[in-house]
Design goal:
heterodimer, A: 250 residues, mainly alpha, Butyryl-CoA Dehydrogenase, subunit A, domain 3, two-stranded antiparallel sheet, 11 helices, 2 strands, 2% strand, globular, B: 383 residues, alpha+beta, Butyryl-Coa Dehydrogenase, subunit A, domain 1, Butyryl-CoA Dehydrogenase, subunit A, domain 2, 3 domains, 4-stranded mixed sheet, 4-stranded antiparallel sheet, 8 strands, binds flavin-adenine dinucleotide
Chain lengths: 250, 383
């Protein structure tokens, strides 16, 4: 079921009219997927939204489909939603939940971008030659890309941890972990990706800039690492649990 | 790209193990200072290991036919998580149950399995690992310790170094050369099971920078071994050692080495009251990173439970985990050094001193960071 949805979603995104995507998106029914079945949706839960969010994040440019899907939980006719947090809050959703959902969605899109960056970087390292061999054969490059792969894996796991259950029941603490950990990964991965790509990576025509640009914007949106860490830490210090129990009970 | 790790959860019957383990540890470790707890898998306490074994908690995943618990990898995850979170002294049985037992079950003869595995599960046979030597660290295939075949077994000569509890263990499983020469590299290496009480063996403890003696140098001077000392096939040592290292690298032990320090720091900050924004931020970053690591480790456990051998994914968790563990003393020092008032408890300072000093070892034991990153790069297709 979820594989089928992902396949259809991917095909929809592939076939979008870049200048005017919204009629097509509204027509597809995807924008209402999270809404209840009574409201014409499919009551998709966050586990189901997770692969779609990563898929959206892996694209260099894209209308804000995921944000709009979430916004429609509170604003049924919404299209082209950039700031899902305020649309949700204006629509009567608890502001804390609105922020958590917006932060988690941003983290999910960033995790998709991180995966795309890893793929671009692996590909570049295997094709670009200097000193008579692929740059990926140099140990210094290999180790940097290993670190990148680790961070991408951690970021993806952090998002998975938040994408659990019904959207409006999003746990702010788990959303915080996602936004915090993905933001940390974003800094490291963007720096390594640009280092490995050399000059071509900072050119206008190369797609890397779309992804790394999105990572830096994402770190600024809906609460950054420090803000979410303070929230999490406040909870941790209020409790009397040990660190492992805290991590378990999130 | 690597395997995409899926969020995994611990089945209720395995999660149920947590409470009895916690209760046992709370009683057994009452009053143990944080600085001692920080030693955890460097702490050798045979009585403690036997008390665990009496409850069936040594060899939890090994087959019941050999005295093991026959439990799942998730049950082991719960047990190890609690042992390490509490800073229990697990070193005595640790290597035997994590590596030697599974290795013997996989490559040993029926007689070897029957002779050692039930004793491992009972906490009656402690093992050490003889891989590193004075001139062979990361380049393990260059080992020089040599066993020559004789009419009735093997004659062993050479030295092992950095052997954790080589001076206290009953047995060593060593990687040695049994044929060919150094140029043959991975060929001609074998694993031997050595009874450390035999004549010709001397084991001397080496002190670490904190003053503890966990590792040692072990010398073999014409040690006569029986034919049954060979584990697995002659010349297959390299393949066997790599299978063994995969057991070593995949558990939750690679993320929890600094827990005693985090817990001591949390208690201190809580005791001061009214946490500052910086304190909350640091606590949040640590718990957030830990939660992600724990779930990564749990999904590697799920792959093990499915019968896969997620060597590369386990290496990812090891590198992330040891980097996390190693970052803690620096972060805690920064915070403590920023305080302008109030005394810092002695036990917190002692724990900090220990973890600061020994922190670098977290990414050495079990393969250095550079070796681990090389494994990941190979998994990514770069080499
Ligand atoms: C606490 C502790 C317990 C231990 N317990 C045991 C034990 O029980 N049994 C046992 O056999 N061993 C044990 N060891 C030894 C451990 O396995 C070795 O320390 C480790 O394999 C590294 O070897 P080395 O220390 O000789 O360092 P070296 O291999 O000399 O490495 C020094 C530095 O060079 C780097 N380096 C080496 N080769 C390369 C390369 N090709 N590319 C890039 N960088 C490279 C390393 O990464 C490292 O940074 C233990 C070590 C510690 C710290």
């Amino acid at each position: 079921m979820s594989d089928l949805i992902l396949e259809q979603f991917t095909r929809l995104l592939d076939g979008l009219d870049g200048d005017s995507p919204w009629p097509q998106l509204a027509e597809s029914g995807f924008l209402d997927l999270l809404r209840s079945e009574d409201d014409g949706g499919a009551a998709l839960d966050l586990e189901g939204l997770f692969p779609l969010t990563l898929e959206a994040g892996r694209r260099p440019t894209l209308p804000c489909v995921i944000q709009t899907m979430i916004a429609r939980l509170a604003a049924p006719e919404a299209v082209d939603v950039v700031d899902v947090e305020s649309v949700l809050a204006d629509g009567g959703v608890d502001p804390a939940v609105a922020r958590a959902l917006a932060a988690a969605a941003t983290a999910g899109l960033m995790a998709g971008a991180l995966e795309a960056i890893e793929a671009l970087t692996l590909d570049y390292a295997a094709t670009r030659k200097q000193f008579g061999r692929e740059i990926g054969k140099f140990q210094a490059i290999q180790h940097q890309i290993a670190v990148m792969a680790e961070e991408v894996m951690a970021a993806r796991m952090a998002v998975q941890l938040a994408f659990v259950g019904a959207p409006l029941a999003m746990s702010p603490l788990r959303a915080g972990v996602a936004k915090l950990r993905v933001g940390e990964a974003a800094l490291t991965v963007a720096a390594i990706a640009h280092a490995v790509h050399g000059a071509i990576g900072v050119s206008q025509e190369h797609s890397l800039r779309h992804f790394t640009g999105r990572l830096h914007e994402g770190r600024l949106a809906h609460g950054g690492e420090a803000a979410w860490a303070r929230r999490l830490g406040g909870w941790a210090l209020d409790s009397d649990l040990d660190a492992v129990s805290l991590a378990r009970s999130l | 790209m690597l395997e995409q790790l899926k969020l995994a959860s611990i089945p209720p019957e395995d999660e149920a193990l947590r409470e009895p383990v916690r209760a046992f540890l709370a009683e057994r470790l009452a009053g143990v200072p944080s600085a001692t707890r920080a030693r955890s898998w460097m702490g050798f306490d045979a009585d403690f290991s036997r008390a665990l074994a009496a409850r069936g908690w040594v060899g939890l995943t090994l087959p019941p036919a050999y005295g093991g618990g026959g439990r799942s990898h998730f049950a082991r995850f719960v047990l190890i998580e609690e042992l390490l979170a509490a800073g229990a002294p697990v070193a005595a049985h640790w290597i035997a149950e994590r590596q030697s037992g599974p290795l013997l079950l996989r490559f040993g003869t029926p007689a070897q399995r029957e002779a050692y595995v039930p004793r491992i599960c009972a906490g009656q046979a402690f093992f050490c690992i003889g891989m590193s030597e004075p001139d062979s660290g990361s380049d393990l295939a260059s080992v020089r310790t040599r066993a020559e075949p004789t009419a009735d077994g093997w004659l062993l000569n050479g030295s092992k170094l950095w052997t954790t509890y080589g001076h206290k263990a009953d047995y060593m499983i060593a990687l040695v050369r049994t044929s060919g020469g150094p140029d043959d590299r991975h060929k001609g290496l074998s694993q031997l099971l050595i009874d450390l009480s035999l004549p010709g063996i001397t084991a001397r403890p080496i002190r670490d920078l904190a003053g503890d003696s966990h590792f040692s140098e072990v010398h073999f001077d014409n040690v006569a071994l029986g034919p049954d000392a060979l584990v697995g096939a002659e010349g297959q040592g390299w393949e066997q050692v790599n299978a063994e290292l995969a057991f070593e690298r995949s558990g939750p032990e690679r993320i929890y080495s600094s827990m005693a320090l985090i817990d001591a720091w949390l208690r201190f900050v809580r005791s001061r009251g009214n946490p500052t924004a910086q304190e909350a931020e640091l606590a949040g970053r640590l718990i957030g990173r830990l939660a992600v690591l724990r779930n990564l480790s749990l999904s590697v456990t799920a792959l093990l439970a499915e019968g896969k051998s997620p060597a590369v994914e386990a290496s990812v968790v090891k590198d992330l985990g040891t980097s996390f563990e190693q970052s803690i003393p620096g972060l805690v020092t920064d915070h403590l050094a920023s305080l302008e008032d109030g005394a810092i408890p002695g036990d917190l300072l002692a724990t900090l001193a220990y973890v600061t000093g020994m922190g670098p070892s977290f990414s050495l034991r079990g393969g250095t960071r550079e070796v681990i990153r090389g494994i990941i790069a190979r998994g990514l297709g770069l080499r």
